[in-house]
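Quick log. Single chain, no ligands specified.
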Amino acid sequence: MRTRHPVADVDVEVVRALAEAAATADGHPSLGDSVWRDLHEPGDDTGLFLAFDGDEPIGALHAMPRPAGLATVGVVVHPDHRVAGAGAALLEAAVEFLADLGARHVVLWAFGADERSDAFAAAEGFAPERELWEMRVPLPVDEQPAWPSGIATRPFVPGQDDAEWLAVNNRAFANDPDQGGWTEADLRQREAEAWFDPAGFLVAIDDRGMAGFCWTKTHPPAPPLEPVALGEIYVIGVDPDRQGTGLGRALVVGGLTSLQARGNPVGMLFVDGSNTPATTLYRALGFDVTRVDRAYGRDFA
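-> predicted structure:
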């Protein structure tokens, strides 16, 4: 077991190779975008743990403290070494590291969660807390956006719309641990991503200002896992004062229409499995659940 703190570029390449091997075997990623963003520009409190069999890297764990005593971890183990106890050893080291930093609760994410991940989490003292569903729909959908009266739409303008978008986003996701509480730095980081395209960032405006938005991104084909391009509804939100007007459905359809026009034959998104109004809407538009990601939580003693 080796701890990387601070994280070096060569360490990130080790993680990337492990993640690619795991994705090939599993058919889905093991680590999320937030992990890669943090590893691209690791903070002073970023923890990276690597497990080896001799000189061969067989597993990696990324640990990131968050505000209010929370922390998240993501782990990947090479498919040829998943019975060697590497995942448990990595998690034990990360828990000790995070406890020393003052964390009181840690969340472990498992992508493509199944009985194996449930058993692993339970054995390490973690209990299921939350599910994110990946849902997909063939494009185009058989519907046009029906905008509420008084709504106009246009692309997001970086530098002009930032403050107002942050205010609407943080009101819409006030109780969401991932999307709520965004800062200007968070938005700037996304705007600097290679995939960012303001033309795919739709904002809805009424006489009081920004009423909602649908931010999309495109994923080029990545055979063999993803043979066709995917169009993702990255974040969609409606200001709480405008909910119940039909704006949410119109934004979803508008985003999907934009994605299809840009050459994406499949639309996809992630949604909290407990958000019944949203999942009901998506199912009504033809979406099906294609993957379940599960968060397991554990309090520190």
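The longest strand covers residues 127-138.
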